[in-house]
Amino acid sequence: xxxxxxxxxxxxxxxxxxxxxxxxxxxxxxxxxxxxxxxxxxxxxxxxxxxxxxxxxxxxxxxxxxxxxxxxxxxxxxxxxxxxxxxxxxxxxxxxxxxxxxxxxxxxxxxxxxxxxxxxxxxxxxxxxxxxxxxxxxxxxxxxxxxxxxxxxxxxxxxxxxxxxxxxxxxxxxxxxxxxxxxxxxxxxxxxxxxxxxxxxxxxxxxxxxxxxxxxxxxxxxxxxxxxxxxxxxxxxxxxxxxxxxxxxxxxxxxxxxxxxxxxxxxxxxxxxxxxxxxxxxxxxxxxxxxxxxxxxxxxxxxxxxxxxxxxxxxxxxxxxxxxxxxxxxxxxxxxxxxxxxxxxxxxxxxxxxxxxxxxxxxxxxxxxxxxxxxxxxxxxxxxxxxxxxxxxxxxxxxxxxxxxxxxxxxxxxxxxxxxxxxxxxxxxxxxxxxxxxxxxxxxxxxxxxxxxxxxxxxxxxxxxxxxxxxxxxxxxxxxxxxxxxxxxxxxxxxxxxxxxxxxxxxxxxxxxxxxxxxxxxxxxxxxxxxxxxxxxxxxxxxxxxxxxxxxxxxxxxxxxxxxxxxxxxxxxxxxxxxxxxxxxxxxxxxxxxxxxxxxxxxxxxxxxxxxxxxxxxxxxxxxxxxxxxxxxxxxxxxxxxxxxxxxxxxxxxxxxxxxxxxxxxxxxxxxxxxxxxxxxxxxxxxxxxxxxxxxxxxxxxxxxxxxxxxxxxxxxxxxxxxxxxxxxxxxxxxxxxxxxxxxxxxxxxxxxxxxxxxxxxxxxxxxxxxxxxxxxxxxxxxxxxxxxxxxxxxxx
Length: 797
Known about the structure:
This is Sphingomyelin phosphodiesterase 4. InterPro entries: Sphingomy_SMPD4. By secondary structure, this protein is mainly α. Helix content is about 55%, strand content about 0%. It has a domain at about 105-150. It has 32 helices and 5 strands. The strands form 2 sheets. Strands 1-3-2 form a 3-stranded antiparallel sheet. A two-stranded antiparallel ribbon has the order 4-5. Strand 4 and strand 5 form a beta hairpin. Helix 2 packs parallel to helix 6 (about 90-100) and helix 20 crosses helix 22.
């Protein structure tokens, strides 16, 4: 595409919009790359907001953009590779960002599209704690529509990139999309590795001037000084507004301003949708949920958590001399030291609390669970490798992680209790639910982990001797202004103080801590263990029932001519479809989960044996005849909420059996409706014609009489008719001896008759006659299938 000389931004923008309709995707990207290389920043400045929106979509979700969340290499390899190359940290788009960054342009981002707590804080004229928003709020002039943030090009680009995960929820999807293989997921991973490197330092941005450098963002005064409002309030936060420091005031922070900005944007856009006050309000069942994260959203957050662990664990060991540390530690190393506790911990904790309490009770919770478990195990992302061992023993958690566990105590204890409450309400017979219980139990059963959690609880419960009560809330609170490097908190050696500060900073001063290894939680674990035993019994009963069903469907069962299934009840449930392999996996998961829970909470053999015996006596023949939980009333049995749960999940059932006349019961799915009605009329005619003769035969006391009574009468129905006037009134047919031909209407019987017919033809009439009879039989079979099995209907004219 030829580049016109000094063309007006409006003309250039109109040309690019027309190209979106007329040119293929790859050609448009090549043309954009040429424009970025050749045009000056002054002309590119006008098209930058449109270009960002055309890539990531509009903030209201109407414009989809490039639809990076659904773009995959497997389904669209050309556009996938072109998009990744164009948006790469060293690609054309980032070159445009840095070119505009050098000129210190600013772009407006509406405050109304920020996460709920941030938007509410700014609209109430309270400056958020995160330094990302400092000196950026632009107030509307006379006639303005709303508040905006004045962002530099790098911030503007990353704001749109991060928030597109939230706003583009209704993207058109024509095929199954795996989030971890999408272009968006790959770009998140690429940006994290580039701007938060685990090895080396952050690569300098490319410069359009040889030997030049791109300056970091400079402080910018707000359009209206914050001191002009809010001074009449007495809160610490609002008093701070009048004395806000400059953004990136510390020169040492200039080296990693992109790393800090990227992380703050990701955390704010993906995690900061709930504040502590908002979360406490959300505990009420009458409060409507304001934001619902998706499974894809959680998977991206898990990627962020895993990378931050690797980034933090790449911190170089501290030198022995304290004086040497202050002179040799680089800004990036200092950033690694505080990245999780200062930027991530509080917002991730509230985000997880919300997910544990509001996520649906289905298998999609696995994404939340794995994200939580990833955060709990930073040692999995440490650079050192575990020693090679011939025995597959679980790796013990090193004592060096004790500080992390203590300073994240609520992540381990309170969220574990939240998972317990979820597990007690799920169907553990499902393999996916059983797997989740197994995963949590396996993680917490790692050697030395439970002991370190218990040590953290003991430190929290230590009596306060010296530490003032009000100091807890202020210890770990983030710096209210400037970069994290502008003021470092003094080192605190009191481990008890650190644990208390962590708990009170996340839950407030009035929080009543519930011990993970206390009596109340131990009783919940025992209840979960009991449910695991019951689920194992239920899985065994399903397995036995499936085996019996398979045996009954063997080859020789096709030759049964008795209506054995007429009065039988359906004893299966939806779980019959999971298969023997899934049932076996469920049993393995539950057995190992029970073993791990016993290790974590030191459950004795006597407790476990007593619980197993209780479950065994409660089950009658592996649950086959155990009724759902009911209470007796004047009107009979009434289901309790537990009984409804048992029926819905297939754990228990009522034994239903047809107790009327077998000839008059509803037509089954394995019967041909037309043939049932035809045979009923035929048997009724025979019973009416030979009723007296059958009565005489059945009254005989010899072998013939016993044979006729066995085949021509229904003793159970006769007994019910004699002693139940209701059944007698509802039975219009004679309840004496009679012929029943309904069994001939089942498909199994018809196919069995055809097989016997063909075999008899082969043995008695020879090959030639057999061929003729097979053709005749095939013709009859086709006629039956056409007029009876499929159901014959007259043509409509």
